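User: I'm preparing a small set of examples for a lab meeting where we compare how different chains pack in three dimensions. I only have the primary sequence for this one, and I'd like the structure in token form so I can line it up with the others. Please keep the answer compact; I'll paste it straight into my notes.
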Amino acid sequence: MRFTDAEFDNIELREFIPIEKVDPVYFEGAHYLAPDEGGAKAYQLLADAMNKSGRVALAEMVSRGKEKLVLIRPSKGGLVLQTMFYANEIRDFNEIAKGEGVRLSAAEFDLANNLMEKLSSEDFEPESYEDEYQKRVLAIIDSKVKAREITIPPAAPARGRVIDLMTALKESMKTVQRGMKRADQKKRRKA
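Assistant: Understood. Below is the structure token output for the 191-residue chain.
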């Protein structure tokens, strides 16, 4: 099956595979796909069939003469084109040291597990995270537009390398507990 569009030369579907077989490390960027004029039925048929089967389409796309590996997946009743890295563009994870041979105590494991439980959530809510850098840049631009003198705040201190995991986990727990206390205090004030 081939698709053509003004944005890319063509997309050739190669195979359909279960989405859980695709490691997200290969994902590069996501783009919403919309049907061209007269293509709504084929678009919806593909979206519905992939959604029902739990499979996604691996394809090769040619854009401006350059080949790109892509994955087309169903999402919220439509289709998303996920650009991907080729295998040779991903570093072999076996080449990375992963702390093999390190012994963990039960107390260390309990502390890590406790931290994860306190910070766990059942839903992914991306709107609760903000790009602080972008906000600072937009504030500087806004100041410049309003012809104010711009002062750049000092950069946040660089984080050092964590050497003692146990100490780092204990500090994280303290931070979480302080945050939880502040949230409880805010709730009490509102009540």
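A couple of notes for your slides: The beta strands are 2-3, 10-18, 27-33, 55-63, 66-75, 78-84. The first strand starts at residue 2 and ends at 3.

User: Perfect, thanks.
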